[in-house]
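Hi team, as promised in this morning's meeting, here are the two structures we talked about. I've kept the exact order from the run log so nobody has to guess. The first one is mostly here for context; it's the second one we should focus on when we meet again. Sequence first, then the predicted structure tokens.
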Amino acid sequence: MSHPDTPSPIASLPGAPLTGTARVPGDKSISHRALMLGALATGRSTIRGLLESEDVLNTAGAMRAMGATLSKQGEAWIVDGLGNGGLMEPEQALDFGNAGTGARLAMGLVGSYDFAATFIGDASLSSRPMGRILAPLRRMGTRVIARSGDRLPLTLHGPDAPIPISYRVPVPSAQVKSAVLLAGLNTPGTTEVIEPVMTRDHTERMLAGFGAEIEIVTGPDGARTIRLAGEPELKACDLTVPADPSSAAFAIVAGLVVPGSEVTVPGILLNPARIGLIDTLIEMGADLEIADRRDSGGEEIGDVRVRACELKGVTVPADRAPSMIDEYPVLAVAAAFAGGTTRMEGLGELRVKESDRLAAVAAGLAANGVEHRTGEDWLEVTGGRGRVAGGGRVVTHLDHRIAMSFLVLGLAADAPVTVDDGRVIATSFPRFIPLMEELGANFSSEPAVTGGAAS
């Protein structure tokens, strides 16, 4: 979806403690995958708890454009699938807006089909590199016509006979791994992905749930080899999408840094590859408990309760990055209120997110008086032991996580914090503002009196 041209600044104001239950939306990663595999399954799939963000709805639109039937009935989404191998050539370009995950996974999905599909997106997505996704697809025989640097808009045309490959992922990336596996669904023979460092495994779990034949072997060095038998029959299924830990992160951190707060976030996905932030916050001394651990569609979920407390600086190792890559901006906010210095390593992936997130976080911290240092792939934040000046204006660069993270900072800072454009929040968390207001947060659509601006 496109946004109007006029930015819509939002300011967060310090105020009362946050209390209550925050029911965050369904996991974005699982929502994308559920729609795609439902479109390829034989029969009718029912998906509950789907994240109805712009990103996910753009994926739904792409599946419709390639022949699947999707509708909402009450709280559930109904997907009538085409059967594996049944996607049809889209008549129009597939517009993914700001959805990097949706675009990259869909490239894998259609890359083995003998038809042309053109991918477009907004200015942010069009600036992001796609080469890591396209490299293995080219090895499978996919032809690519793209802008310089393998950027959108681009067109893929799969081969007459796709070639199964064995692909070692050069850097940890669940999107690359998933794209290759999705391409393998319409490829004869066995497609193999080797990942030296484990990344989120939702694709593997969901492929198995839809009936694909998939084998995973972990070697003595920790490397995972994932083998997918090509051209399986995928069977429709009913599933519930767990609450998104990346969206839950904002309420969790706010509950820890706003004095006097106590917040519960129910039904959060607790997949080991997704809880790096929770592990880190516990190391920082967070008053955080997980209750009622239970299973939901092959994934563990639980209820997370936090109380405001003093945090301490820690070192976050590089090998934790894949399990919390989207949560570093809000972790930087938590670190701003901690005692001592928090060092985050292995952040190179943040340079190629919706924005250069590492630079955007650093600029936002600077605009709000937070002491920090940064390098090519690391960030150090020296906290104010519960005190942050605030008063800054943060440039989001069309990045939803930058916007939400610094709005959280403003809820506990000494002065209001303004983000330059709150519209981008809808790409992943349309109800962020009302949900936080239900807990007691105070926002204003009028620009606050600001200090320095983050650029």
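And here is the second protein, the one for discussion:
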Amino acid sequence: MRLHTDVEDYRESMQFIDSDILDTVLSEMERQDFSRFSRNDVVFALNQDVLDPKDFAALLSPAADSMLERMAARAKDDTARHFGNSVSMFTPIYVSNHCENGCAYCGFNKDNDIHRIKLDMESVEREMRTIASEGLSDILVLTGESRSDVDLEYIGGCIDIAKRHFKSIGVEIFPLNVDEYRLIQERGVDYVTVFQETYDPSLYSKIHRFGPKRVFSYRFNSQERALMAGMRGVAFGALLGLGDSSKDAFACGLHGHLLQRRYPHAEISFSLPRLRPFSNGRYDCDMTERRLLQVALAYRIFMPFAGMTISTRERPTFRDNVVGLCATKISAGVSVGVGGHCGAKVSEGQFEIFDTRDVSEIVRMLKEKGLQPVMNDYVRV
């Protein structure tokens, strides 16, 4: 199967689903001319109780840059209305950095000369026990994207261990088919994170030089396949700074919006990753913090009930200012290398982080801001 967005055919293992959301997102993205929005368009959008995609585009436009204070006030009100003063906390655990893809911006890409590791189950247990001892109850399990090195049975073993220590389990792994998502959901996974990286098919094909990730539409439909399998939540993200930030953020927001309408029960959330240097390489990023803030505020106002995670890629002071304003989830005690939590095995990180604070420091920061750190907001029955 080949779609107009794909530079490679679907591989035999990849499931095709007949969904119109991809075509809708790309056609709406292409028809937006962000330079044509005026200050009046931004004011109009901010005066709406419920925004449509055109209003969302106005908030992402250059015209909105001079109105960030008003956007921030609206976003803060929306966040308080839907989330109160609570901020969820979690940490990622990298269990493998083996990867089959040639992503030009990533420290795990197959061509990068790094120490490749896959933790054994005993090491996974030690890592998770160490993380849980810090008080966290929400964990995100990450791998590089290599089915040949990290199969579903291995991932299932990690999930089984995670269930002994954590109440909420997410995964950020290679995209799966519906039946595979159902298997890990039944095993104990609550939510799935998949970053499209960029929604520009042409740029996508250039920076994903080889590997299964080159099949744009298969990756795009990952969240829908997960929801079809009964997953509770799905997270979206564009790697901001790779391409046109207005188009990528607009497409990412619309992607989540359309899936929320199709699957009303789903918990939708957005991540705000910004391009960062990585081991043995770097990828230039000219996206400023101010621009990142504009994107975050626009997400919140467009989808006031969606979760939002602020990454350790950002400076501590920036993260501190964004939580409570529009972000509702923050990571702490982060290591982006395999085996980095208890030091049994440590590899190069997927990217460079900015915020190295531990759990107690993030908890203290939140309380000083009058916010309530929440270690878990979900109980499995």
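Starting points for discussion:
The chain has a mean pLDDT of 93.
The chain has 14 helices and nine strands.
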